[in-house]
Fold this protein.
Amino acid sequence: MRKILHIDMDAFYASVEQRDDPSLRGRPVVVAWRGQRSVVCAASYEARCFGVRSAMPALRAERLCPDAVFVPPDFPRYKAVSRQVRAIFHDYTDLVEPLSLDEAYLDVTAPRIASPSATETAQRIRARIREETGLTASAGVAPNKFLAKIASDWNKPDGLFVVKPARVDAFLATLPVARIPGVGRVMQARLRELGVETVAELRALPLEELTRRFGSFGRRLHERARGIDERPVEPDQPVQSISSEDTFAEDLPLEALEPAIRALAAKTWAATARTERVGRTVVLKLKTAQFRILTRSLTPETPPRSAEELAAIACALRARVDLPASTRYRLAGVGLSGFRDRDELAAQHDLFAAPAP
C-alpha cells in the first residue's frame, strides 16, 4: 500500500508578499494587476474572508473587499521560493510530482530519510518549509493521491490531516459529492436528480447505471466513491496543457459565447501563471446540445502574452466552426497546449530571428 502526501502551500503568492513586506501582514492582500480584464492570481486568507478567490475578476474582488491591498504578481520571486520548497521535498523522496508552483504529490512509501511513518515525514517537511522559507504549508496523508489531496485541504491553513487506510470508507461516506474531482455544478445537479448528494449515496448506485448515464466518468465516480485511485506519483512530468471549461445553464448560439469564452480564457491564463512553461497553441472546445464535441486550435507565431490575447484568439477560432447557425452549444472550453520551457522558446527565437543589418 502506498503512502502518499499532498503538500499545498498556504495562499502561496499572497503569503510570499506578506512575508517580504511586513506592512502587509494581517491585511487583505490580493495578488493581481488592476484593470478591467485582470484576474486574481492569489488572495490572502484575510481577503478570502470577504469571498475573494483566485481566477476571480479583479474588479469583482475590489467590490467584495474595498480595503484590499492589490499587489502586482512577481513570478520570478514565487518561482525561486517554489524551487526552495521542491529541494526540501527531494531530501525525503525522489518521487515528487509537482502540480504547480505551490503544490505537489510525494510518494513516501520508502522515504530517503528514515522515518517512523508518513505522518512524521509530513510533519518534518512542513517544519523545514516554515524554518527555511518563513511560509506555511498544509499536508494530507493518505493511501492514494485522490484522498491525500482532499486531506490537505481539511485543516487549512497550516494544517495536517491523515486518512488512515482503515478509515477511508468512514471518511468518504459523509462528504458531499462536490469533493470528488470533476464533479462541478452541472454534475452535482445531475446527481441530485438521482437523489445523490453525499458519497455514501453515490456508492448505492450500481456501476452499470453510472456508466450508462455518465460514460467513462461514471466508472471514475464509482471508484472514487470507494476511495480507489491507482495513479502513481509521476515525478518531473512537464505541463503539456492547461484548460478551463464550463457547461451553460441553457444552450447558447455560437455568437453568444464570447463572454463565456473570455471568462474561461481568464481562468486558463491565471492557471498558467502557476507553471514555469509557456503554452504556444490556443484551443477552443465546444460541445453542442446533441453532445457533439468540436475543437479548433491555432499556434500563433508568438505565444499569447496575456489573458486578453488568449481570449481574442479563442473567440476568433469560432469562425472555423462550420455548423449551421441554428446550432446550440451546451459547453465551451479554452485551453493552452504545446507547452515549452521559456529557455527553449528564447533559443528558438534567437535561432530564427533575422540577422541585424
User: Anything to note?
Assistant: Residues 347-357 have pLDDT under 50 and may be disordered. Residues 247 and 331 are 4 Å apart (CA to CA). The domain at 1-161 is CATH 3.30.70.270 (Alpha-Beta Plaits).
